[in-house]
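Purpose: get a first structural picture of the assembly so the mutagenesis plan has something to point at.
Setup: two entries, given in the order below. No constraints added.
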Amino acid sequence: MAVEYFEAHNFFLQKGGSLPVARLAYRTSGTLSPTGDNAVLIPSWFSGNDEASETYLTGTGRALDPEKYFLIFTNLLGGGRSSSPSNSPAPSEQGRFPTVTYYDNVRLQHALLTQRLGVEHLRLVTGWSMGACQAYQWAAQYPGMVRSAVPIAGSARTASYNKIFLLALRRALTLDPVYADGFYASPPIRGLKAFAAIYAGWGTSEPFFRLGHYERFGAKNHAEFLEYFWEPFYLGHDANNLLTQLKTWELGDISDSPAYDGDYTKALAAITAKLITVPIDKDRYFPPEDAEFAASHIPNGRCATVESTWGHMAPMDPNLKETFDALFHEALS
Amino acid sequence: MAVEYFEAHNFFLQKGGSLPVARLAYRTSGTLSPTGDNAVLIPSWFSGNDEASETYLTGTGRALDPEKYFLIFTNLLGGGRSSSPSNSPAPSEQGRFPTVTYYDNVRLQHALLTQRLGVEHLRLVTGWSMGACQAYQWAAQYPGMVRSAVPIAGSARTASYNKIFLLALRRALTLDPVYADGFYASPPIRGLKAFAAIYAGWGTSEPFFRLGHYERFGAKNHAEFLEYFWEPFYLGHDANNLLTQLKTWELGDISDSPAYDGDYTKALAAITAKLITVPIDKDRYFPPEDAEFAASHIPNGRCATVESTWGHMAPMDPNLKETFDALFHEALS
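Result (structure tokens, whole complex):
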């Protein structure tokens, strides 16, 4: 099915301001069952979109099979398809786009599900990276609505170390004079290339480079991996969109809501879903320790660490499809 | 003893060009024994100097005791005390300073030792980070002259993954429009702050942040750690000097010389010194695996991995002084 749009008007935001029109781009695959018990929500990751989520996490014959489940793929605010700096009219255009949080994203997705799609219960919410963060957010923000959750390589609260990474990305990108405080006439190419270089060092793992796994991307060395993969990828994105998503990521914290008032363990304890959190052992910014902590405070939580030299990028490793599918099956059962 | 200077004229460089005058800033502590068997060379690390080496690695009552050994502390070319972009006259000033390698640095240090200090044999060469890289370089470049070597958290050849980190630092710093291709009128503050943010994410380790070790630096969180420690540190350095040292680091390879012609295992096999390489288990860019590989190809080599949540910064951890001293004692015995 093609991308569709859900719109909320005068959408007030958690950290202040509002979007006159908040557009949520989404796509569905499969059909909602008569009893409404087969809806699976898959929010997008940083710089990803609904198509990427579908490609890597679902498919006919896989655990998340559109023949069996009603799959809903959403796009982050700031992701380029939903309302974003790159596509919003004044007064929310470019450098004036406001700060949005996971709370805002999930509230908008909730409106889509309940007001348009007729979905009252989620059999599963899953996602990778920022998609995983949204899965945690769903489980804490609408606990009565989420039966199971599988956050892959994400966190319920963004860690200090992770924030240093995000800060480095932000500083490098906004340093490009072409960026012009977000009102650039052409893309800040050099800033995006510096962004790509920083990302390349965090996105996979040390052994990924030592063992030469970049060869699977047609690269002979680190420089070609950067040139052939990371640079074109980030040059294809709008700088303000990336920065909007980074800010959402940085502010990630399921306890930052009136219900929990900053009490992180209280928020984790409020999650009633069967939650299997899936960190990657060599993930450079979402370490297993944080996921273990979260799982240990979630009543029906379990941590299933996956080993991979692909580090944070593990869901892109074709050899791990069965591993992830087994975890989805477990959560869906 | 105060800093002294050794000068070599018309100093030709490995990668081309020359320095009309190559100045090597150094300091000594202790006295050379009549038989000349107690000289210990300690080259400086990235953005470090002779004083920092002395403070962290030596001292009365420690293994490297100036009462017993003739300690020689050298400064890297580009380090700000030896010939550097910041202190060289035309035609080598600022952005015109040439590329220098470990080979060049060690050749100049060799001239200092043999032509001025009367040192024909090194009881030990040690150092941390780029100091460790120079220790490897010494052992391969002048094998007959080095009795033992203890490279701490460094490598004999800069790894692909390490180069990605260096590239990110270079791109961020040179992106600052103030940098002006190396001919800046005032320091590129924003570039240096972006540099500091990238470094903060690599210099220690994930658990250093998760466990809140930044509190030992008076910081309550990652942002204060950056503000109180990393930013002032790098704002105190000259941008061109940092970039010169980065280039030396990037080109690190003991086999890049006429003697080995790029054959890395041949260069390692040629090391006759008793070499104890000391990687840190959580070092983000000099992993134990690279050190183990090197040690396994050095006839008299051994790898002694040290565990520390301080990661690459382990030698700054006061709790590890005895650990390092024990390794120095072993090498000196």
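Chain A has eleven helices and eight strands.
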